[in-house]
Specification:
InterPro entries (chains A, B, C, D): GlycHydrolase_4_CS, Glyco_hydro_4, Glyco_hydro_4_C, Lactate_DH/Glyco_Ohase_4_C, NAD(P)-bd_dom_sf
Largest interface: A-B, 44 and 44 residues
CATH architecture of one domain in chain A: 3-Layer(aba) Sandwich
Oligomer: homotetramer
CATH topology of one domain in chain A: Rossmann fold
Cofactor (chains A, B, C, D): NAD(+)
Protein name (chains A, B, C, D): 6-phospho-beta-glucosidase
Strand content of chain A: 15-25%
GO molecular function (chains A, B, C, D): hydrolase activity, hydrolyzing O-glycosyl compounds; metal ion binding; oxidoreductase activity, acting on the CH-OH group of donors, NAD or NADP as acceptor
Shape of chain A: globular
Radius of gyration of chain A: 21 Å
Structural class of chain A: alpha/beta
Number of strands of chain A: 13
CATH superfamily of one domain in chain A: NAD(P)-binding Rossmann-like Domain
Family (chains A, B, C, D): Belongs to the glycosyl hydrolase 4 family.
């Protein structure tokens, strides 16, 4: 990567999150000599893209940064010569997400955009698009790093690792949020903590936690059981049963509620869907408000309201990765990367989420030793679902798709799996050319 | 093992299945020089034991075999000097089984005596007893082989492998039944088939099937999907969906219905429980009828009605093992034995069910290569449940017990897991000293 | 495979061993309906091929078997429609073998045709030829089994497994010879023994031995240490040190002498080379004598003198495999086949030598559990040499070739490795087109 | 570990290296609040210990540090309440080392104090002593970290991991020296490099090297082949063959010369032994000179001559570890630690040397993915030797000892292994109570 001048390509630049990313870049100009940012989006998102681009330009102008900003529909131009390609797009937009949430509910199954059948549907739509982006990167920016935030981030990253040559790291704001919340609970700085993270995206545990060399896992679990804040904005905060946390012996991520507290989460989702609307439907409203704000020509910084949107630490997580790679910092980040034996019971080419050392050579996972049966079975079950989903998404293979849903722990049996799958394929027909 | 004179100890000799076992011994006297059989049972089973002993004596007398038959409550005497110890007892009898079936149903969860929470409860009751038997074997017959049929056979065998030095093989009549049914479908002899079996007890697949070198897996799956007989007497024969079987690509065992057709099986169980009674309650009736038959002093052979009881091939499966070990036949049997790397993603000391070569050195599993994600996730999830159950049963550890049920795929979430666990511990209080 | 009519293609039909193979076929006509045998050889071996063909025809005629015998240079015709292709050719003939034995001796390194640099040179010559044969099989007899006896059998089989689709099993007469010698020592029938074989070709141990269920490993080792016959005709019988055998705790194969008794074996080889000639040079004499015998028009059976040649049980080992596959016997044979996790520390696609169940679906290895450090290091070191040799042989890659020899435990260091490699490449120039 | 006051116990405090360690402590007082240092040594080393203690006191006084220094024979007092126990002792002193170097040479085998039979003898002497120290730590300072520099560091650390509960990390100055030399070659800062280290102690490769994201492995190998400085003071710098380095494709450590350039290194050792004496005999002279210097009451800093002794970066490597643990820095250090699946083909409880993240929770290895056959065989062979050596050293088991040497790649065969073993046991009789 050339020293002294960085180009970032932002795929899905019209996202409401983008101002946070711009803010993150501007805060790090001493470390990251960003000279060019290219936002790209699809035709349907043109209006949002323009709003974002104008706001971003105002933010850049405010600090007087020497950054050339471009916004266009031209993906190839965006990617050509980029050092980092950051992907945060959403195929089908929020309406597709609303479908992902509502279809499973029809069958009394959790409807969520990243886990369960909803995440499955999103993966089917997203993977062919991301592999198209990878082809462009291979041709036009073969040394670029692709940092992927598009959900389901683990699945998407696994598809990229298996079916392209692009250097990639998948990223999520869950682990950094967990770390910050644990630091808050323990009233310490986050860098005083050592957290042994390993699992899959949105199925991540901190298996052990240390504060200054002392094992505090049990203490953290007790605090979480006592109701300490340990959730994300976009997940219903069903309280954790203290006895269960003690039996588990590892710190679950907020998304684990879908797997461990299934019936309560389902009940809440169904109530929400009937009342305020699914999460996607709520976000549509928030988004509209945000874009109204963004249009204000006086606004030249990220508005506070964005934080309500749910992507806490999103910008920090992503730009810290850029910093770690560009400056070979070899810092520890929790990322989605190739397993390579870290969890010996999963294939080497599976993508896992774990603590990794990130530097100019990419992400190298930190060993976790043998994990116990309290977690290995669930990890393997979900990874099996993910492996099958990647095959289904890439090859448009119905058998793999059916077996994927059959293996998803949130889907009770094959009858429901088949019904939901057929509904997903029907509803998403326009976005699933590989199945035609 | 001394050549020329074998002693068999039958723990749970008062079982209604015992006449089939006696018949099996008498059919094999040319190969197996059985000189002594000792039935042992607990006080509560004394009456049944006597009936069985008299019938068995009449069967022996009929063929004029030179076998000394003893029936007693003296387990140590039975075990002392035995060459084979065969375990087929049921702690708590059929009433405990009925509880195992009914408790989960209260929570809308599959109630079955070998899988799900029912099998879990049975394991908690059985494992301490079997480890007591192992202590006797270690002291009084250290070279004996223990052949275990007591369900859940895989879990019980794993406990024995981990917590005793007794040489053991766990056995089930499911695989031999599957083989016979496939042979019937294909209109061939069973020894013309090669079936690549691997999984866990009651979670067993034939991953590939060959007939004279030709891969017939797809053909068998098609026949099963078309309604060919592929079930066991004691399981409701919910039909298999052909599309699912094709997607699975491996031949499931009848018990897979609990995992793959959960809602239909649950509905059937609930209906049965309300109408004819649970399976245990039905068996109580059959048993009574059988024991009435057995008491007939004219009866000197296994009555045909026993076959309705559901244990087809039970005698053949067990005595073929005795034959293979005693005569070093190195035949292929499907047994429960130490994993030892056969399924690389499971611990070496996990007990699996797979095709194995059985001879005088015991059972040695046959390699299966890499299994795919259509099955690995489920196998690992269920094995995690089993590992935790063994720890719970041996140590009376509540945390392990809770995590075991949380990991059981038939239990939807932690709320139900906890409710069911507490109910099981309460209901089985007398049989679970380790939890007091 | 068609029932009722088998065709065998024998590649290298002009070998002096062929009469034994023919005898083996004629002994098994009740089980193996062989209707056609096609011997094929290269131009340079035409004279020998004719002699063998005439002798074979006389043998067939003697028993009046209904077998069509063909001998030709036409490899494609031989392979077309064959059920079994048996490979026993020698690229470069005995002269090349003599070079393999003499080159290393120049550098004070073991010169042997299957292990060490000699086996390496033979692999470089053989692998391209066998892959050519495989192409013919893929095109002309895609369902045929290739049974490979060509040394180094493990290496050659690994190349076939990795670089062709042909169904193959590699075979050696060492394990069957070990079994027969152990049976002789223990004065028992070979089928009373259970021998846990695992290792690589010519680096094979019986890790444990049982006789009727009793572990006799220590007894066998004591007898071997006391001088019981435990060698092959073609290896110098350097006596084993009893203390070493006890420390090893596993029964080594005769070829282990090269690795464990290196200096004594080297000294003997050097003395032989100066006096009677290397093994190849001695065999040239034996061969000439054999072929003189074979030409005798009165001779219509395998002459006794063939047994001096060193290939004891060669015919039985190979035709028992044909029988096991054709008749789905599922017998235990020790073969070279895909590792598939049997030795977890080796790659899945490595070819190992181990006890396997052989039937119509091919060879399935029997698990051996964890092997200890007394053997794992050596196995892995030699397998690393083999992996590199396969790459070198297939791609003509000098770097892999050099690293192969560097990793061979019989080559002391890189200086010698390079000198020997360059000598081998020079001397075998005509046979190594891939390196040009 | 208490914040604000650290106690260091230095076992083998009378070592000539100790002044460097003291200097390292004094340089880091801003980060490491060392308040107490306790040197301990054995009776025979009392004189040297006194000299070192006086010098250390002068060094402390010079900078006016508030550190209480104690020197005694009282190991328990030294250990009690220590935060870090640093072990750098030498059982039998330099005379024993001279024996380790000379005994193998008698048999034409490499004589070196850390690899080959010399390192083996040192392990036999050292392991019982270190396990005694561990008992003291378990009793008197259970939270202390033991940082072990005593050679053979990998073997000693493995014994501690397997046979004690002490938290330990093994350390060597080879990797840091390699990094510094590579930085010098590439004219860059060491923190610009990413070096993927993995192997065993003194058998360590940098498998890949990156400079600012660019793979520079081939460049480094070319420079090493061209004669760039890449050796340690205490190893003869036999030049590397460029063709070999290219074929290897990984950067070897200086000690690899013993394995890859065996005959040249042996020749050099034999010449040295006859002329200037073995390395130990040369060091005896250097040591005497150093201790004369140390006695100079004017001297109040580490004298430059110490650097000739061969322990470059020794102090930095060790105190950077103390810093990383005490201050939870999570920096990357190359250490000896539990494998835990990092190299999947080695047991989980093997100790390996690799890049690891070191913080207050100890060392966590960084994944290396699959290593290729160019290195895996040798690593496994040497680790097998090490596993057997640990067993031999702990249990005084002759069989394990013999198999250890048989598996050491520097020992040509069992005849030599046995001769050398018997010589070692005889010569070291006083130091090997476990073998009596």
């Amino acid at each position: 990567m050339a020293k002294g001048a960085l180009k970032l390509a932002i795929i899905g630049g019209g996202s409401s999150y983008t101002p946070e990313l711009v803010e993150g870049v501007l805060k790090r100009l001493d470390r990251l000599p960003v000279k060019e940012i290219h936002f790209v989006d699809v035709e349907a998102g043109k209006e949002k893209l323009d709003i974002i681009a104008h706001l971003a330009q105002r933010m850049i102008d405010k600090v007087g940064a020497d950054i050339k900003l471009t916004a266009s529909m031209d993906r190839k131009a965006a990617i050509a010569g980029a050092d980092f390609v950051m992907t945060q797009f959403r195929v089908g937009g929020l309406q597709a997400r609303a479908n992902d949430e509502r279809i499973p509910l029809k069958y009394d199954v959790i409807g969520q955009e990243t886990t369960g059948p909803g995440g499955f549907a999103k993966a089917l739509r997203t993977i062919p698009v991301i592999l198209g982006i990878c082809k462009d990167i291979e041709a036009l920016a073969p040394n670029a790093w692709m940092l992927n935030f598009t959900n389901p981030a683990g699945l998407v990253t696994e598809a990229v690792q298996k079916y392209s040559k692009v250097k990639t790291i998948g990223l999520c704001n869950v682990p950094v949020s967990m770390t910050m919340m644990i630091a808050e609970m323990m009233a310490c700085q986050s860098d005083e903590l050592t957290l042994e993270y390993a699992g899959l995206n949105h199925l991540l545990w901190a298996h052990r936690a240390w504060l200054n060399g002392e094992d505090i896992t049990a203490q953290v679990l007790e605090k979480v059981g006592d109701g300490a804040n340990f959730s994300m904005k976009n997940i219903f905060e069903e309280p954790w049963e203290p006895e269960f946390l003690q039996a588990l012996g590892a710190i679950p991520c907020p998304y684990h509620r879908y797997f461990y507290q299934t019936e309560a989460m389902l009940a809440e989702e169904k109530a929400s869907a009937e009342q305020g609307g699914t999460r996607a439907e709520q976000v549509m409203v928030t988004e509209q408000e945000l874009f109204e704000l963004y249009q204000n020509p006086e606004l030249d910084e990220k508005p506070e309201q964005l934080e309500q949107r749910g992507g806490a630490y999103y910008s920090d997580a992503s730009l810290n990765l850029v910093d770690a790679i560009y400056n070979n910092r070899n810092t520890i980040n929790v990322v989605n990367t190739r397993n390579n034996g870290t969890m010996h019971f999963l294939p080497d080419d599976a993508v896992i989420e774990c603590s990794a050392v990130v530097g100019s050579a990419g992400a190298r996972p930190i060993g976790v030793g043998k994990l116990g049966p309290a977690v290995t079975g669930l990890i393997h079950q979900v990874k099996a679902y993910e492996q099958l989903t990647v095959e289904a998404a890439v090859h448009g293979d119905y058998d793999s798709a059916l077996m994927a849903l059959v293996n998803n722990p949130l889907v009770p049996d094959i009858t429901k799996a088949k019904a939901i799958l057929d509904d997903i394929l029907r509803t998403n027909y326009d976005y699933l050319p590989q199945f035609r």
